[in-house]
Amino acid sequence: MKHFEIALIPGDGIGPEVVAEGVKILKAIEKADPNVSFSFREYPWGCEYYLNTGKMMDDNGLELLQDVDAIYLGAVGYPGVPDHISLRELLIKIRRGFDQYVNLRPIRLLNDSFTPLKGKSQKDIDMLVIRENSEGEYAGAGDWLFKGKPEEVVLQTGVFSRKGTERIIRYAYEEARKSNKTLTSISKGNALQYSMVFWDQVFEEVGKEYPDVKTYSYLVDAASLYFVAQPERFEVVVTSNLFGDIVTDIGAAITGGLGLATGANINPDKTYPSMFEPVHGSAPDIAGKGIANPLAAIWSVSQMLDFFGLEEWGRSVLQTLETIVKQKDRLTKDLGGQATTSEVGDYFVELLLK
Ligand SMILES: NC(=O)c1ccc[n+]([C@@H]2O[C@H](COP(=O)([O-])OP(=O)(O)OC[C@H]3O[C@@H](n4cnc5c(N)ncnc54)[C@H](O)[C@@H]3O)[C@@H](O)[C@H]2O)c1
């Protein structure tokens, strides 16, 4: 019997609505498989918690989470709390504190009708973006000098350490080798003459150990164009924190929107727990209406199952996703259907256990 303890941080807005559906899937798997069990610990952290306590999470939050097998997060952020507070004092604190230096974002078209790209189909859009998740442009280094004065100056420093750059690039080469796919690095060496020239250099250096992996290297502006015009160029992609954030939103746009985009924050050494979450935010515009699409959050469950070594279940969840997206009447409004969030979850379980 394999047992996994999962910390739930449903968060704000639609976060709790979509997390509830992901948990529904995990509970269904537990019921169907006598060799697997899950237990859940829920934390009420997020913007409402901040408004009541002045903190996004408890001071000893990381300590409380340290011994779980995974963290399952909905979304944080809500009007009334500045986004840089909600993001930095919870999400980034966990990613950073638990050295979740790999952000895995699959960009895969599950249904031809979801892409706005003319002439592109499922065979053209199937990639895995590996985003550096611990430093780079989001390292939080900088200064704000002479605030409010005419001579005001702000500095936001990108931080690219050899250790941090090498380990993410090596992880990507390993992934490309394992899956027998090409590897594309996205950078910007022509304009960022320190950080990105260094990135390109490390990509080449590490590549010498992987002569079997076919590689490409694009500037981020060209890569953004190719994401839209020729997404079939990409299989495994490795890039920095900021560029990864942006190009994966393009990825979401060409595959059906944010309701279908997932991301895993991985600590590959398993020294700390990893965190699984949909890419979307708390969507205050639709929160509480029961119409949020839970499929991105459910896709995160598939990534979590893979991470636990339950790959068969991970695959089944993904296959069920591919099946459900072909039945428009079973989907939420953002994907052209009429179903509610919990109806999608219920039907998903039915299909999964069929
Ligand atoms: N990981 C996170 O927790 C995270 C990520 C992004 C934004 N945020 C925060 O969320 C708040 C809202 O940000 P935003 O509006 O820029 O982004 P958002 O992702 O919350 O919403 C953008 C648009 O996509 C729609 N959308 C998002 N998820 C959906 C879903 N599952 N089903 C159907 N429609 C969906 C929303 O209705 C909205 O129109 C902000 O406070 C922001 O900081 C948090």
TrEMBL record:
Keywords: Manganese, Metal-binding, NAD, Oxidoreductase. Its cofactor is Mg(2+); Mn(2+). It comes from the Bacteria. Its EC number is 1.1.1.83. The keyword Repeat does not apply. SMART domains: Iso_dh (SM01329). Residues 5-348 form the Isopropylmalate dehydrogenase-like domain. GO terms for molecular function: D-malate dehydrogenase (decarboxylating) (NAD+) activity; magnesium ion binding; NAD binding. InterPro entries: ICDH/IPMDH, IsoCit/isopropylmalate_DH_CS, IsoPropMal-DH-like_dom, TTC_DH. It catalyses: (R)-malate + NAD(+) = pyruvate + CO2 + NADH. Belongs to the isocitrate and isopropylmalate dehydrogenases family. This is D-malate dehydrogenase (decarboxylating). It comes from Oceanobacillus piezotolerans.
